[in-house]
Design brief:
Layout (H helix, E strand, L loop, with lengths): L3 E3 L2 E7 L1 H18 L6 E6 L3 H9 L6 E11 L6 E6 L9 E9 L3 H11 L5 E9 L12 E5 L5 E2 L15 E4 L1
Parallel strand pairs: 3-4, 3-6, 6-7, 7-8
Antiparallel strand pairs: 1-2, 2-10, 4-5, 9-10
Bound molecules: inosinic acid and magnesium ion.
The site of magnesium ion (MG) has 3 residues, from loops.
Length: about 180
């Protein structure tokens, strides 16, 4: 498979579409068993997780719902750094078995924030599923409940993930060369 150039950088294939599809199918198989009769509510995190969420959802064969949230980051006016805001929890998630779907866990900052926010809604349970996980980049005491691939802490694009807006449409996952 050929390298791709996005903006100023060159990327090379790391995980092929076939492998991605297989891992997603395996994850769906476990969820189908574990969540039977629990009517899980999937919460996809936009924008990056939209393809992962769609492909996983198509393999779920138990009663379930899906909705999407977005984490908007904005710089604080104080020196306290970036503040986050979780938007899109429109209908009640109280008493629901929630499965968060994220594209990638890097430092774990976003994941931890999302879980803290969801915990305020008295859900029945919360689990976190991510397509990619960079355990060596993790800065928090957090581990996703499900991850399709553990990767080294290099920058990746494709299958929903972008480099400065581009690359989300690539079917394979590419790593910075
Ligand atoms: P974290 O909060 O550091 O775990 O980072 C989470 C967010 O950073 C992800 O949801 C992505 O949007 C972005 N991100 C982290 N690593 C990568 C990468 O390798 N490629 C593209 N986006 C990334
Ligand atoms: Mg993301």
């Amino acid at each position: 498979m050929q390298d791709v150039k996005i903006h100023d950088k060159v990327f090379t294939v790391m995980i092929e579409a076939k492998q991605i599809n297989e891992r997603i199918k395996t994850l769906a198989d476990s969820i189908n068993v574990e969540y039977k009769d629990k009517k899980p509510l999937f919460l996809g995190v936009l924008n990056g997780a939209f393809l992962f969420a769609a492909d996983l959802f198509k393999e779920i064969n138990i009663e379930c719902e899906i909705s999407f949230v977005k984490v908007s980051s904005y710089s604080g006016t104080e020196s306290s750094g970036a503040l986050k805001n979780l938007i899109g929890i429109s209908h009640s998630i109280k008493d629901r078995h929630v499965i968060v779907l994220e594209d990638i866990v890097d430092t774990g900052d976003t994941a931890r924030y999302i879980i803290e926010e969801l915990k305020r809604h008295e859900t029945a349970s919360i689990k976190f599923a991510t397509l990619l996980f960079k355990p060596k980049a993790l800065k928090h005491n957090f581990k996703p409940d499900y991850s399709c691939f553990e990767i080294d802490p290099a920058f990746v694009v494709g299958f929903g993930l972008d480099y400065d807006g581009l690359g989300r449409n690539l079917n394979d996952i590419y790593v910075l060369k």
